[in-house]
Write a structure and sequence with these properties.
Largest sheet: 8 strands, parallel, barrel
GO biological process, one term: carbohydrate metabolic process
Number of strands: 15
Pfam families: Glyco_hydro_18 (PF00704)
GO molecular function: chitin binding; oligosaccharide binding
Number of helices: 16
Shape: globular
Main location: other
Keywords: Lysosome, Membrane, Secreted, Signal, Transmembrane, Transmembrane helix
Strand order of the largest sheet: 1-2-5-6-7-8-9-15
Helix content: 40-55%
Amino acid sequence: MAAKKRSSRISSSSSSSSSHRSEAFNPSSPDSVKSQTNRHRWLITIFFTLFFIISLLIYCQRYYYYTATTVVFDVEKPYVYQRGLVKVDSTYREVIDENLNVSENISQRHFGNPVLAYITPWNSKGYDVAKKFSSKITHLSPVWYELKNEGSKLVLHGRHNADRGWISDIRMKGNALILPRVVLEAIPLDLLKKKKLREKAINLIIMECKEMEYDGIVLESWSRWVAYGILHNSDMRNLALQFIKQLGEAMHSVHLERNGKTNLQLVYVIGPPRTDKLQEHDFGPEDLQALYDAVDGFSLMTYDHSSPYNPGPNAPLKWIRSTLHLLVGAGSKSRRLGEKIFVGINFYGNDFVMSGGLGGGPIIAHEYLSLLEQHKPLFQWEGNSAEHFFLYSDNQHVQHAVFYPTLMSLAMRLEEARSWGAGISIWEIGQGLEYFFDIL
């Protein structure tokens, strides 16, 4: 095409030129043709040289900018991302070699929404982990208390578990709220129907918070009420909701001496539905709406999806997502409701027996690492649940399947929580690997 255009220009020029110019430029002359051809080659060479130089300058400028911004961005990303560890194709060797390597800046938070972390007295590692990573956590819930019947009386058991020195250390290191868990084990038919017992329960909880200088409590009662079979009855269900409201309002009326601007807080534990549709006893969206103003947060137990009798993933991502859909719905209201949810995330795993009879059960960090060292397994990614697992055979040649959190599975659950405006609740921090905290 370029040659065709050149012929056109030459023909037009020769027809309109003077006789003198025609003599000077004779297209029939071999020398003239050679001269013209050289001139065009020279122009084309200059054009492409300039084009190349300009393109190179633009490319260099863009490359420099891209590289600079990428480096800055990577520095801001969690340390485990910088090391390329958050991925589907993880290996057992990476976990063994890297799980203790955490960022020097352990105070920097990457997950901006609330983080509720449970700690159990039977796993003392959780206390140390809480102190080390206290800046990553907004709510700490040591599992300390039960409210029980003793004859005709109500008694709050558990102060012997409380560790004032540990609480003091936590408050020196960060701003995490201390909200011990209280399990309501009192007989619900007595507690909920009798006004004096309800008031006694509330007073016991508030007095303990005042004397021990807690910031509030995490209350667990719904699962107990389900076990007693009272939530199928609409009157009893209303009494149950009224009790939680009454407790929340009473706690909100108490101003903390450490900070007069803050009231005692109430976080309420709720279980996830086990089917695609809510059952009569399930905690549902109407219950969430009813308690919204009286409760500061809802600890949603989206873990323990599988069991030795039904082996599989610990907390399939699709199940977590469908549970949130059932609870908070869709549209403009969902964000508002979602902001009070702590999406449950497990830091433990399960080692299930897959042959020779069902069995197995939970495992924690050191047990998991021991299995990796012993069996050197190949990790497999289960896309539907967004979890890693591996298979191994024990000394009796019985096959096992191990599901345990990885950086990739945790990262995807954090992103899911973010999309709802929700926080997370971790059961429990002493059972996980240290580098899990890098992504928080």
